[in-house]
Structure prediction request, 219 residues.
Amino acid sequence: MTDSGGDGAAIALWLREWGEAWYGIAEIGGRLAATSTGGTREEAARILASCLPRGARREEGEGASAYADRTANMLAAIEAGDESAKRFELAPEAFSGLAATVYRLAAAIPLGYACSYGRIAAAAGVVAREVGRLMMNNPLYPIVPCHRVVGSDYSLVGYRGATSGPDLEDKLARLCAEARGYGEELDLPDARGLVVFPVERVLGKAARDRTDAGQLPLF
Prediction:
């Protein structure tokens, strides 16, 4: 659920099928309020509705929308591993300044890298717990790759609010698929100097934890 600015502007809702997936786009005047993905139109619509601010006025998008088409195309490309065209503006009516800052920082984490809640918090000027809350309620997947945000010791924590179980297994699987063999940290000067680290560090921590617990290796 987003933090609402609450000026009463109506949110236009669009659903687009792209390939084998459906994408939901919620926007106010060409600025994003939420996005969603789903295997069916109904699933994408349900997830999109759950991401909208409480009490927000909604209207179903009708007819043609070049904005919805472009955004759905971008979402599909991101899901396919191509983030070169990731461009977006956030609707101020749907996000507080704090939420917008945190989501923009998390969105800047490139494929093959991860970042800690603490580092994002330091860049945004908030506490790590607040970053965790916003990631748990992320309304902008896959633009904001919340699965790339991990603990300061590279541990898998907090994904969808989980500390263990299938949600963290899903997070691990996503990170495994995104590993690119990078070895050094990367400074992101356009994201308040946020420093991200190779996803391999997270995978290494998960592998050690599994070994210590007597579980099967990752791969």
User: Anything to note?
Assistant: The chain has two domains: 11-79, 97-212. Strands lie at 11-18, 21-28, 31-38, 58-60, 113-116, 149-150, 186-188, 194-198. Residues 66-79 form the longest helix (14 residues).
